[in-house]
Automatic annotation (TrEMBL):
Signal peptide: none
Modified residues (4-aspartylphosphate): D53
GO biological process: phosphorelay signal transduction system
Top-rank lineage group of the source organism: Bacteria
Native organism: Stutzerimonas stutzeri (Pseudomonas stutzeri)
Protein name in UniProt: Chemotaxis protein CheY
Annotated ranges, domain Response regulatory: 4-120
Pfam families to which the protein is assigned, alphabetical: Response_reg
Keyword Phosphoprotein appears in the UniProt entry: yes
Keywords tagged on the record: Phosphoprotein
Length: 126
């Protein structure tokens, strides 16, 4: 059974790119438009990993990470924050509140899949 990835980004174009890459990589993708929508989706779906943007309306990526870490079912789920924000202070804050990994956008699809495989402990055969 395919693992489920929650893709959280206020940009429909970014979500579409990520969902296409994830589907191609054998994952099931669930989309959310912001942090509040993501929290609702976490109640509706069993998710193995979250990918979140940093800057979003309603609840940003930092707030989402905090909320996910407080959720009993997801407090240990891998969270990959992908953002165009290159601020070392924001990255430090995100990792401090519980993001598992942090990467810059844009990210090539193959690099995204490699990061996800690594975070889920699924390494492709050599």
């Amino acid at each position: 059974m395919a693992k489920t990835i929650l893709v959280v980004d206020d940009s429909a174009a970014i979500r579409e790119l990520f969902v296409a890459a994830l589907t191609e990589g054998g994952y099931r993708a669930v989309e959310a438009v912001d942090g509040l929508d993501a929290l609702a989706k976490l109640e509706e779906h069993s998710v193995n990993l979250l990918i979140s943007d940093l800057h979003m309306p309603n609840l940003d990526g930092i707030g989402l990470v905090r909320a996910v870490r407080a959720h009993p079912r997801y407090r240990f789920a891998p969270i990959l924050v992908l953002t165009s924000d290159r601020s070392p202070a924001k990255e430090a804050e995100g990792l401090a509140v519980g993001a598992t990994a942090w990467a810059a956008k844009p990210i090539p699809p193959q690099r995204l899949l490699t990061a996800i495989d690594t975070l889920l402990g699924e390494h492709a055969p050599a």
